[in-house]
Amino acid sequence: MSVTAETKPPRSLPPLMTLSDAAAERLRALYAAGEQGKLLRVSVKTKGCSGLSYDLSWADAPGPGDEVVTDKGVTVLVDRKATLFLIGTTMDYEVKPLSAGFTFVNPNEKGRCGCGESFHV
C-alpha cells in the first residue's frame, strides 16, 4: 500500500503593511509639499514603558535594510528589522480636536502602555 501526499499550495501571507485612505491622502500631501523627493520610513524602536515604539523618519531613497511597500499609489519604506512586528499592520492618519498624526492598527500588539506611546508583542 502506498500513501500519496497531497501538495497544498503555499498559504499567502498578509501584506506587510497597508495604508488607510486618510494615511495615503496625508502622505500624498506631504510628498507633494515640504517632503518632495523623500520617502517616509517606518521602524520600531526600543522605547517607552511597554518596550517598543513606532518611529517615523524621512529618507532620500530606500536603503539596503528597507522593504518598499506601495499601497493606494503611495510608497513607504519599512525597516527590515521591524517587519516581524508590523506584518498585517494598517497605518492610518487621525485628526482629533487637539492633535493629528499617523496611528497604527497592529494585529501583533498584545498590549499598550497607559499613555499609548509604546506597545509590546
Write the layout of secondary structure elements.
Blueprint: E1 17-19, H1 21-32, E2 39-46, E3 52-59, E4 66-71, E5 74-79, H2 83-86, E6 89-95, E7 100-105, E8 111-112, E9 119-120
Parallel strand pairs: 1-6, 2-5
Antiparallel strand pairs: 2-3, 4-5, 6-7, 8-9
Describe the overall structure:
With 121 residues, the chain is mainly β. It has a single domain, classed as Hypothetical Protein Aq_1857, Chain: A, CATH 2.60.300. Helix content is 13%, strand content 40%. The chain has two helices and nine strands. It has helices spanning 21-32, 83-86, and strands spanning 17-19, 39-46, 52-59, 66-71, 74-79, 89-95, 100-105, 111-112, 119-120. Strands 3-2-5-4 form a four-stranded mixed sheet. Strand 6 (89-95) and strand 7 form a beta hairpin. The termini are far apart.
Throw out a few tags for this protein:
single chain; 121 residues; mainly beta; Hypothetical Protein Aq_1857, Chain: A; four-stranded mixed sheet; three-stranded mixed sheet; globular
Number of domains: 1
- Percent in strands: 35-45%
Structural shape = globular
CATH class: Mainly Beta
Query: What's the total count of β strands?
Result: 9
Give average pLDDT, whole number: 83
- Assign the CATH superfamily: HesB-like domain
Major sheet details = 4 strands, mixed
Gap between N and C termini: 47 Å
CATH topology: Hypothetical Protein Aq_1857, Chain: A
CATH architecture descriptor name: Sandwich
Order of helices and strands: EHEEEEHEEEE
State the helical fraction: 10-25%
What structural class should be given to the helix and strand makeup? mainly beta
Going across the biggest sheet, name each strand in turn. 3-2-5-4
- Give the C-alpha Rg: 18 Å
Runs in which pLDDT lies below 50 for 5 or more consecutive residues are: none
Query: What's the tally of helices?
Result: 2
